[in-house]
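Explain this fold:

***
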Amino acid sequence: MTTPPMTTPSVLRIGNCSGFYGDRLAAMRQMAEGSVDGPDGTHSLDVLTGDYLAELTMLILGKDTMKDPGLGYARTFVRQVEDCLGLALERGVRIVSNAGGLNPAALADKLREVAKGLGLDPAIAHVEGDDLRGHDVASRDGGALTANAYLGGFGIASALRQGADIVVTGRVTDASLVVGPAVAHFGWSETQYDELAGAVVVGHVLECGTQATGGNFSGFKTLPLDGTPLGFPLAEIAADGSSVITKQDGTGGAVTVDTVTAQLVYEIQSTRYLNPDVTAHLDSVTLTQEATDRVAISGVTGQAPPQQLKVCLNTLGGFRNSMELVLTGLDIDAKADWVRSQVDGAFTADEVTWTRTALPALDADTEEGASCLLRCTVKDAEAGPVGKAFTAPLVELALASYPGFTMTSPPGAPTPYGLYRAAYVDRSEVTHTVVHADGTREVVADPSAYADHDASAGRRPSPYPAPADSLTRRMPLGSFVHARSGDKGGDANLGLWVAHDPAIDEEKYAARVTWLTKLITPRKVRELVPEADDLEIEVYVLPNLGGVNVLIRGLLGEGVAASTRFDPQAKGLGEWVRSRSVQIQEGLF
């Protein structure tokens, strides 16, 4: 399956304007208007992508369709397109987005309506076939609210090749938003695995928007913190799949090896990054600071994709509610124990979880500093046990419990929550379909070859010995180690790598990398993250990136929508781990 190029092969410039449903509304226009200075002059974008979908977003869109079957797409995308469609058409910028969510056909129709109102006539195509709500995989465990297979980029490529100005999709992988335009532009075949893998890596870097230019970056103090909004990233992709990550001139943040690494290690699992079109080898990625705000990605290799497609399933799990009590001053533990004993047996919810923040400092000079929070969260299949049956017993204690009893907010109503799980189906059970701008339908062919996925590939075979140098100092791990963390369903992902410090030489940098990769073992992770003591932990070495990726299975329970953990998406996990003290050899400073 070879896709003819949509233009003469040359550098393809792809930008991103959204990393989630709710991202900066003005970003699409800012990216469409902007330009970038490269070695060969100043250029505007060829393609503008927008990523609006996540596991939690699919649940939100599913709830939208319960209210109105005509919804199910990212409505903010419509507003953005309405604002800058004329500009995009004038500049020849093609728009590719997964904003179609559960209803890409309805989104395409809505965009045609908007374009007509503007006096414009763009060619709008959409990709569908990912929705498996009528499939057996969705009927298990009482039925799923949403069930979507992750599709690849060849459907997008076909739509662009046929002249689409806008392509909207359902649940393609985030990286497919870049793979599709690259395939269309360069005419890559399905077996050009290294090129496809290079595009997948680019797609992964761009997908979360400003996370590649300094957002959520543990080294944020090195950024120009002048209040300028962070720029969204863009990539210059070459015909061999190599690329340069950069950003538009005059925008905030920075593009460095560390900011790009931060996004590369975000929400991944092993060193094999499985996508519907190719399996990318993340341990082959090499990053080079080419110039200010220009990071080159090279050396990416790939192999055939997996036989099966991943499916995102969301079911309605029930209802939840929570209340927070303030504990102040002395006898914190005794106060918490008393109030818990007073409501013991009063709650009828299936699940009751109590958590408390850290004990306050002694002799605090503010009341807030002398206080901590006691949080109670309840969950049940029905709304009743988590409504007044939960809040009333606590409210009734307002004058009858520990001294200083107070709550942070009035009682709230029960809210529904969802459960996420991943499933896998054979490709033959999914019909990847492109509906072109003229209404014709095209079924996208499956790949002709597949690779067996070795889940242990790249995993540390056995713990490394402890460093031999006995002269150590106990310091925070983050003294020279960056981190980025996030969620993969109920699992937590934690990437750790050695910061690129211009003040140290290559020898010391290499010594730090060796120390870090020896230090981080499953046993050490359990020490650093006591909450993971009884969980399965996998550690994968990423030598070219100077670090490791850690997967903590089950830390987040049944996923973000159901988790009662303080940090349900593990967004702060990396910063907590960086603050933990470890023994660091004197020679590494």
